[in-house]
């Protein structure tokens, strides 16, 4: 039986992943800061599905807490799936941002994601099986239309996931980056959500169901809102077309050197 470790599992996207994976028969390790919320979710899912569920109360922005979860991923041979979901947003304009909050965001959105994936990857690669699912964001593709730091953290997660897929895929490990659009979770205040047209806001259950469908279809990058996959394929093809000219001995002629 497979076991999945899910971060940020006390609500929203993480809780939805816990529900869906429990229904698929996964045993679970749920990680979040709130022990009480985790236990409530775990008790309900145990009763509904009968799967084994453990909880770890941990703030992944704190070095010692993160180290505990890393150790679990390295040492628990039953865990074959990691869902890197924990993250924060909401920093506001850079001209008035709190530098300490930005550091906290980078620690959680980038450092924790990287260290947790690094903790489990060697074991999965050695076994030739398993999966790493990283929650990123469509803002990774549109940084000029959002705040400055949050999209940058999500762009890291997207690039990291693509590189992981290229390295680990041939070893039998699935890597998926999930890029939600605006999703009704606690990361958004209801007042802010109400400012968007209703057709732009996806319910969390539908988002996770689409992400899992994308995983089942073998996608490395899943955007639940994107109607035509060919549009993103064209973007990737245009990006790849730049590769032959990204590094030359001489500067481009347009610089007149």
Automatic annotation (TrEMBL):
SUPFAM superfamilies: NAD(P)-binding Rossmann-fold domains. One of its GO terms (biological process) is fatty acid elongation. The keyword Transmembrane helix does not apply. InterPro entries: NAD(P)-bd_dom_sf, Sc_DH/Rdtase_CS, SDR_fam. Pfam families: adh_short. GO terms for molecular function: oxidoreductase activity. The keyword NADP applies. Pathway: Lipid metabolism; fatty acid biosynthesis. Keywords: Fatty acid biosynthesis, Fatty acid metabolism, Lipid biosynthesis, Lipid metabolism, NADP, Oxidoreductase. Belongs to the short-chain dehydrogenases/reductases (SDR) family. This is NAD(P)-dependent oxidoreductase. It comes from Rhizorhabdus dicambivorans.
């Amino acid at each position: 039986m497979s076991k999945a470790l899910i971060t940020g599992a006390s609500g929203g996207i993480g809780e939805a992943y816990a529900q869906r994976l429990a229904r698929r028969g996964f045993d679970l390790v749920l990680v979040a800061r709130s022990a009480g919320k985790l236990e409530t979710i775990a008790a309900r899912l145990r009763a509904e599905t009968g799967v084994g569920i453990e909880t770890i109360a941990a703030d992944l922005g704190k070095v010692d807490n993160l180290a505990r979860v890393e150790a679990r991923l390295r040492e628990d041979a039953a865990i074959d799936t990691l869902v890197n979901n924990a993250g924060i947003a909401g920093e506001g304009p850079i001209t008035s941002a709190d530098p300490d909050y930005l550091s906290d965001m980078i620690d959680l959105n980038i450092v924790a994601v990287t260290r947790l994936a690094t903790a489990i990857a060697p074991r999965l690669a050695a076994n030739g099986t398993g999966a790493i699912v990283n929650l990123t964001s469509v803002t990774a593709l549109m940084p000029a239309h959002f705040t400055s730091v949050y999209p940058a953290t999500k762009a890291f997660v997207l690039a990291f996931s693509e590189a992981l897929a290229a390295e680990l895929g041939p070893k039998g490990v699935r890597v998926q980056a999930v890029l939600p659009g605006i999703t009704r979770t606690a990361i958004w205040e209801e007042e802010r959500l109400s400012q968007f047209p209703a057709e732009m806001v996806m319910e969390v259950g539908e988002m996770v169901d689409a992400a899992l469908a994308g995983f089942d279809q073998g996608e490395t990058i899943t955007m639940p809102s994107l109607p035509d996959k060919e549009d993103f394929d064209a973007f990737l093809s245009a990006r790849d077309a730049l590769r032959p000219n990204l590094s030359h001995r001489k500067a481009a002629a347009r610089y007149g050197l």
